[in-house]
Amino acid sequence: MKRFLSFIRSMRFGMLLLLPVLVCSVIGSVIPQGESETLYAQNFPGMYHLILALGLDRIFSGWVFLTLTALFCINLALCSASQLNAVPARRESAVEQAQTAPIVPAEGYRAEAFSAYMKKHGWRRIGGGERRIYVSSGLSWYGSVVTHFAILGVILGALGIFGLSAHEDYEILPGENTIPGGITIRLEDFRLSDAEGRVDYVSRLEVIDAAGRSSGPREISVNHPLRFGANKYYQQSYGISGEVTVTVKATGEERPLHLTEQSFISAGGTDSVMYHDVYPGYVEDAEGNRQAIVQALGEYVDPAYYIVVMRGGGMEPMIVLPGESVETEDAVYRFEAPLYYPGIRVKTTPVSVYALLYLSFAMLTAGLYLCFFVPAAAVAADGDGYAIVSRKWAEELRQRFDLIK
Amino acid sequence: MLDVLFFGGLVLYFVSVVAHFLALAFRSDKIERLSWGVFYAAIALNGVYIAARGVVAGRLPLANQFEFATAFAWMIGLMAILLHIRTREPWLGALTSAAAFLILSFAALQPRTVSELMPALRSGWFAFHIGSAVLSYSGFMIAACVSLRYLMLDGREETEPERLERLDYLSYRMIAFGFLMLTVTILTGCIWAEQAWSAFWTWDPKETWALITWLIYAAYLHLRLNRKWQGRRTAIYALAGIVCVLFTFIGVNVLFAGLHSYK
Fold first, then answer.
1. What is the pLDDT averaged over residues B216-229?
2. Whether B57 contacts chain A with CB within 8 A
3. Partner of B53 for a Cys bridge, out of A77, B23, B61, B163, CB 3.0 to 4.6 A?
4. How high is the pLDDT of residue B245?
5. By three-state DSSP, how is residue B105 classified?
6. Mind listing the pLDDT tens digit for each residue in B113-138?
7. Residues of chain B neighbouring A150 (CB-CB closer than 8 A)
8. Cβ within 8 Å, pair A22-B201
9. Contact A221/B119, CB-based, under 8 Å?
C-alpha cells in the first residue's frame, strides 16, 4: 500500500498521465468537437463511425479524459501535500549543509561588499561567527508547492464550471421578454456600432429578476457583459427580424409581427403569405423584375423581403421592399424596415467557482514566479569566498555573486 | 512608407545573417562587429516599423498573424542583444538573426493591410494576452538557439565543460521565462474569453495547442529539476519544444479553423 501511494503521488505517475492527456488534446484539436454527425460523415467519410463510436467527437467531456483528469488531480493533491510537508525540512537541510559546505574562494571577492549585497537583497543571516550563513526568504521555498496547489485549483475550478455552470441563449426583441426563472429582459435598443462609429454589437437593456429587482438600464456589448444577481448576460450574437403589419380587412384590426424565422401568415381566410427571409439587397432589371442579393458584409443597406404570396389558389414568389404592401382577399401585409435584434446568452455560475478559479490563476502566476525568479538557497560565506547550497539556483547565484563589486 | 520600413528591416536581417556566417567562416572579428551592427540596425528598423504601424492603426499592432510575427521577430532580436551582452558566445548572433529573419519572412507572406480591431479584440486584456505570448515564444526561440549552439559544441574535445554548462543553464532560464509568460498568456486568455465569449476555455485548436505546449515545457522543467536531465537531452528537448511552439503559432492557423483565426 505504501509503495502504491508513493507511486500515485510520484512525478513519474504525473508524467505518465500527461502522455495520454497530450494524445487526447492532439486528437481533440484535429477532430472538430461537438459537431453534428453529418459533418463527421462529410469530413471523415472512412472513419466517422469510429469517431462517433469512440466518442472522439466529444473527447474532452468523455470518460477517458475525465478519468485522466481525476487521476491527475489525485496525483497533484498527494504530491503537493507531501511537498508542503517537506519544505521546512528541505530548508533546514540546506542550512545544515551550508554550515559545512566547502567555501570556494572567488576572484575579486570582498566580504563586506558581499554582506552588504545579501542584506540589501533580503537574505536572512543566521547565527554569527566567522562563517556567516544566509538563507533566502521563506516564500521562495514554497514556489513549487504554491504552483502545484494552484494547478489543482484550476482543474477543480474547471470541473466546477463543467458540472455547475449552465447557459442558455435567447433572441431578445424590443420590449419585454420573459425568460425562465421569472426574469424579464426589457430591450430598449440594439445597435451594430459603438459610440465612436466602429462595428460593435451593443444592447441597451434592463433586467428585472423574479423578485422585481431591476438592474437599471445598462449597455452590454462584446467584452462587456452584465452581471446581475446570479446571472451574467452576454452580447452573444444578433439576428435580423422581418417587420410586418397585418391589417385584417373585415375588422380593420392591425397586428404588428416580428418574424425571426420562416413563417406562414394568414388572416384566417384561404389566402396567405409565406415569409422566407430578409436579404441584404436586391437588383432590379429593366422590366422591374427583382432578384435578391443573398450575402453581404455588415449592415443591410438595401434590405429586401423574400416572400411567397398564396392567393386565388396560386403561388407567387416575390421580392418586396420595406414600405411596400401586399394585398390578399382578406388582409393587407405592410412590410416595414427590418429590425436588428440581439442574441443574449444568460449564464449561471456559482460565485465560489469564479473565486476558486481567479484565486488559482493568481496563485499559479505567483507560484511560478517564486519557482523560477526568487532564489531558494542557503549560502555560507567567510573572509575568502562563499558556498551555495541550492537544488536549482547554484549557477544563477554564482553568476550574480560574481558581479558583486 | 510603412512597407519601406518593413522590407528595409527584412533586408537588414538577411544581410546580418549572411555577415554573421561570413564572420564565422573567415573567423574575422571585423566582420563579426559589422554583422552585429547590421543586426542592431535591423532590430531598430523593425522596432520603428512596429511603432509606426501602431500610430497608423491607432492601437497596439498585435492583432493578426502579420503583426504578431513582426513583434515576435523584433523580440527575438532584443533578447539576442541581451544574450550577446551576457555571453559573447560566437554563433548565437548567427542563429538568433536567422530565427528573426525567418519569422519576419513568414510575416512578409501575410496580408499587411492595417485594419480596425474587431469587437472581440477591443479589451484591456489584449495587450497582456498577446504581449505575454510574444515574450513567451521569443524566450522559447532563444532557448532553442542556445540549445542548438550547445549541440554544435557538445562532443568536441576542445570545448570546456563550463562553457557547455553555461549554455545549458541559459537555455533552461530562457525556457523558465517563456513558461511563465506562456502561463500568463493562457490565464489572461481564459479571463478574457470568459468576458468576450462567456467561457473560460472552449478547446479551440489554438487553446488546445497552447495547453499542449505548456504541458511539454512543464515536463521539461520537471525532468530537468527533479530528474536531473541536463545537457544533450534537454538541448534536444528544447529544439523539439520550439517545433511545438511554431506549430501552435503557424500550423494551427493554417490547418484548423477556430476562434483565434485572426488572419
1. 89
2. no
3. B61
4. 96
5. helix
6. 998 888 889 999 999 999 999 999 99
7. none
8. no
9. yes
- The predicted pLDDT at position B258 comes to 67
Pair A223, B119: CB distance under 8 Å: yes
CA distance B196 to chain A (A): 4
Domain ranges, ordered by start, for chain B: 1-64+86-112, 121-263
| Nearest to B216, CA basis, from B103, B224, A362 | B224
- The predicted pLDDT at position A391 comes to 82
| Average pLDDT score, chain B | 92
CA distance B87 to B170: 9
Which residue is associated with the grid cell 534537454?
A: B234
Question: Which residues does chain A have with pLDDT short of 70?
Answer: 296-298, 405
Is there a contact between B200 and A158 if contact means CB atoms under 8 Å apart? yes
Report the 10 Å Cβ neighbour count for B27.
Answer: 9
- CB B161: neighbour CB atoms within 10 A? 8
Q: In this complex, is the C-beta atom of B163 within 8 Å of any C-beta atom belonging to chain A?
A: no
Q: Which residues of A touch B (CB under 8 A)?
A: 11, 14-15, 18, 21-22, 25-26, 28-30, 33, 60, 158, 161, 167, 194, 198-201, 221-225, 232, 234, 236, 345, 347, 357-358, 361, 364-365, 368-369, 371-373, 391-392, 395-396
From CA B107, how far away is CA B217, in angstroms rounded?
Answer: 26
Residues of A in contact with B180 (CB under 8 A): 365, 368-369, 372-373
Q: Do A365 and B169 touch (CB under 8 A)?
A: no
Q: How many Cβ atoms from other residues are within 10 Å of residue A174's Cβ?
A: 15
Per the structure block, which three cell numbers stand in for B142?
532563444
d(CA B211, CA A108): 46
Closest-CA residue of A relative to B172 is A372
pLDDT at A106: 80
Chain B contact set for A28 (CB, 8 A)? 203, 208
Flag if B120 and A223 touch (Cβ within 8 Å). Answer: yes
**What's the pTM?**
0.89
pLDDT exceeds 90 at position B81: yes
Query: Which residue of B187, B207, B221, B254 is the best one to mutate when testing the A interface, meaning the one whose CB has the most A CBs within 10 A?
Result: B187
pLDDT reported for residue B238: 96
**Looking at beta carbons, which residues of chain A come within 8 Å of B254?**
none
Domains and CATH numbers, chain A: 101-136+375-405 (3.30.310), 163-239+343-356 (no CATH), 240-338 (no CATH)
What is the rounded distance in angstroms from the CA atom of residue B135 to the CA atom of residue B4? Answer: 26
Question: What pLDDT sits at residue B189?
Answer: 96
pLDDT mean over B25-37: 92
| Residues B82-117 as b or e (16 or more Cβ within 10 Å = b) | ebbeeeebebbbbbbbbbbbbbbebbeebeeebeeb
Supply the pLDDT for residue B106: 96
Tell me the average pLDDT across B215-223: 93
Please give the ipTM for the structure prediction: 0.91
Categorise residue A312: left if φ over 0, alpha if ψ from -120 to 50, beta otherwise: left
Q: Which residue has the higher pLDDT, B40 or B153?
A: B40
Phi and psi at residue A49, in whole multiples of 5°? -60, -45
- Across the range B52-81, mean pLDDT stands at 95
Q: How confident is the model at residue B260 (pLDDT cuts 50, 70, 90)?
A: low
**Contact in structure between B229 and B160 (CB atoms under 8 Å):** no
Q: In chain B, what residues touch A60 (CB-CB under 8 Å)?
A: 203
How close does chain A come to B205, measured CA to CA in Å?
5
Q: Which pLDDT score is estimated for A297?
A: 67
Q: Is the pLDDT of residue B248 over 90?
A: yes
* Pairs across A and B, CB distance < 8 A: 99
